[in-house]
Write a structure and sequence with these properties.
mainly alpha; elongated
């Protein structure tokens, strides 16, 4: 009995399990897939007035689009249903090409030396001021002699002998002045400044430094320099040529005054004026031009400030 009960219980339990959990029919479910992205709605095509105003905006803002800093208007999104808008017109504000004169003036301004301070100008202009002191003395003596020769009356307080000696002293001082210039002043300046060259300089007389001694090129250049000097191809600078003309006039005036001083010839103011007229123009031109050549603006083109301080006159 106990065994039958045990069996019945098992059966009952099996029955109860089957009755409580009935078998369900099999259902074929579809395979799950990720949902597709939503398709955006098409953008409606702009109407005709909007398209016309858009084209006008593009054409008026072409100059801004050509510059790097210009703001460009955003372009509308793609619309497959409407045709693409035409490309914007090319910019009209293209700068004209620069002329050669403008570029020349730019390069000329770039090559201009910076302005000098008051102290630097005084240092560079020192030789010109020193030279002008001597020249003012020559101008003053010349005016005394020439005014007397033009008016026919000697300066007050001067006898005939004193007047003649004044003229001879003027010639002697001017000749000494030119001799000092040509021997001690001009050769040093001529190393860099062509305004003071005689035309007989050797290659090693000029800056930059000469080639090595004994070089064949140096000897050949030396020979060519000698030949050119003999043929007169290398002329002296204008200031040196003016010295020659001035000395020719000085020689004539000296001879005339010496004859007047010795009593060989009587002093005549008209004859004195004629002697001075032969070289008066070149003398005054030389006195002014030499000072300008030694001026600060010209000297700074060839010499540094420390070099100018070491030049003696």
């Amino acid at each position: 009995m106990s065994g039958a009960r045990r069996t019945t219980t098992v059966l009952t339990s099996k029955f109860s399990i089957r009755s409580c959990r009935p078998r369900r029919p099999r259902i074929a479910y579809p395979v799950s897939t990720p949902p597709a992205a939503p398709i955006p709605a098409p953008i409606p095509a702009p109407s005709a007035p909007l398209h016309t105003s858009r084209q006008r905006h593009i054409s008026t803002s072409a100059s801004k689009m050509s510059s790097p800093s210009g703001d460009t208007a955003p372009s509308p999104g793609p619309n497959p249903s409407s045709p693409a808008p035409p490309p914007p017109p090319p910019p009209t504000d293209v700068p004209p090409p620069t002329s050669t004169s403008a570029s020349t003036s730019t390069s000329a301004s770039a090559s201009t030396l910076p302005p000098l301070s008051a102290a630097e100008f005084k240092e560079y202009n020192r030789l010109a001021e020193h030279m002008d002191l001597f020249h003012n003395h020559f101008r003053s003596t010349w005016n005394l002699l020439y005014t007397s020769a033009s008016t026919g009356r000697r300066a007050q307080g001067l006898s005939i002998r004193a007047f003649i000696n004044t003229g001879l002293e003027f010639i002697s001082h001017l000749e000494t002045h030119h001799t000092i210039e040509e021997r001690y002043v001009f050769p040093g300046l001529a190393r860099r400044m062509p305004e003071f060259r005689t035309g007989r300089e050797k290659p090693w007389d000029l800056d930059p430094a000469p080639p090595t001694a004994g070089d064949e090129t140096t000897r050949k250049t030396d020979v060519e320099t000698e030949k050119e000097a003999e043929k007169g191809k290398r002329k002296a600078a204008e200031l040196l040529r003016q010295h020659v003309e001035i000395h020719q006039g000085m020689d004539g005036l000296r001879d005339y005054l010496r004859k007047c001083l010795s009593g060989e010839t009587e002093l005549q103011m008209s004859a004195l004026k004629a002697q001075m007229d032969t070289w008066g123009v070149v003398l005054w031109t030389h006195l002014d031009q030499e000072v300008r050549t030694l001026g600060a603006e010209n000297m700074r083109r060839y010499w540094a400030l420390d070099e100018v301080r070491r030049i003696r006159m």
